[in-house]
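Tutorial handout. Part one gives the primary structure; part two gives the three-dimensional structure as tokens.
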Amino acid sequence: MNGVNKTLYIPLYGKSYVSKKGIILADQKAEQIWEAEGFALKGKSKSKWLAYYMGTRSAVFDEWLRQQMVNAPNAVVIHIGCGMDGRCIRVGTENHKWYDVDFPEVIGERKRYYAESNNYKMIEGDARDCDWLTAIKEKKTAIVVMEGVSMYLTVGEMQRLTNSLCNHFENLMLLVDAYTSFAAKMSKRRNPINDVGVTEVYGIDNPQSYQCEELAFVKEHTMIPQKYINELRGFERLLFAKLYAGNFSKKLYRLFEYKKK
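Part two.
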């Protein structure tokens, strides 16, 4: 796998770590894959603080997605840049058609651990090239999540993606996390993704940057809610809140919701 694809090991480790500790996120699939594969991470990539962040970020995405699925019972769910994530299991496909999308080599690895069904499909595709949308026959309503993906796409690539999604679906809800421009600059030297060979990332300071003609910014979400911080204890709770939930953190990471007009 190339450097960007290898970044999937970092959140996988984080979710496995918190799941084993019984906090923030229950993810037996992450535990299973991590134990079986034994990926080699080093440095900041294997920090427990980053693991807490990755677990919390995924829990926030899960929570938002569950609510959107209740609000739109006939929508399809699309997870762009799914990596080895077990969101389809944690949230459950229920009566929704669910599509996980990632690079061919990632989907190849993923199929060793996940089985397709009538409601769940895996699609080989690049977020920068939306030809993969032709594999999705549904056109009415889609709920799309992009977790840990936008920072590898330029603003122009993100706009082309959102425009393609809007052209394909009558209704669209999207949740995406993003680096700020400050975080993108810092990431050249001080980001755990450097440990897997990635140095080129992108950030935005205005959520309208990802909009297209038909897609509107709805609101910004809290990346690290207090209820998840409270699952840690003592010093760890205090330090995690300071590192990942304070004002400094907002200068680095943001979480935006969009909806088709």
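Part three, for discussion. Residues 1-5, 191-197 have pLDDT under 50 and may be disordered. The CA atoms of residues 188 and 194 lie 7 Å apart.
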